[in-house]
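re: ur question from earlier - yeah i can do the single chain one, its not a big deal. heres the input i used so u can compare w yours
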Amino acid sequence: MTAECPLRHGKPDCPPADYAYLLGLYLGDGCISEGRRQVHTLRIACGDAWPGLIEECVRAVRAVMPKNRVCRVQAPGCTSVVSSSKHWPCLFPQHGPGPKHQRPIVLTAWQQRIVDGEPWQLIRGLIHSDGCRITNWASRAVDGVVRRHEYPRYFFTNTSTDIVGIFTDTLDSVGVRWKAAARTNGGTNVSVARKACVALMDEHVGPKY
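and the output i got, formated as tokens:
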């Protein structure tokens, strides 16, 4: 590490809430690639259906690495938020060759301390990347009349068992009950459907926008 590295004294020199949120985005839809002269490029893929998510991602990248340029790269239906630095692997040591679900993803001690202090921001970043808030419905007959009941719930889906574990461990830490189910095409769905837990998620996370 050089003197310019933002990781100093065992923690990054940036707002912990912004780092925790960006960590969630990176674990969900981010990657780091190496270019010339050991410069690494962070890319966070954001769906164009949620312009607010793109703005939040840009804001978080700027907060974590304020001296570096942040760009937006357009693709069909998607905008990648891009920033280059020699030090992205220092801030995200989960970087490595191949897809995340094919290699271990474990938080370092300093990352876990940040997550312990800002659990909702990590959850928010993970939901904004690989999750959603939807409205489910069910119907049943009451006195011969079929009534429709609607209720909100949150979903998080990922193919990395390690990332799913980070998500569910963090939910446990804030008292959110969840259920997990394996997907037929691989990966795991984590759902939060209890009314009180959805209300907590609405207070601290909210839907993508």
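DSSP finds seven helices and ten strands in the chain. not sure if urs matches, ping me
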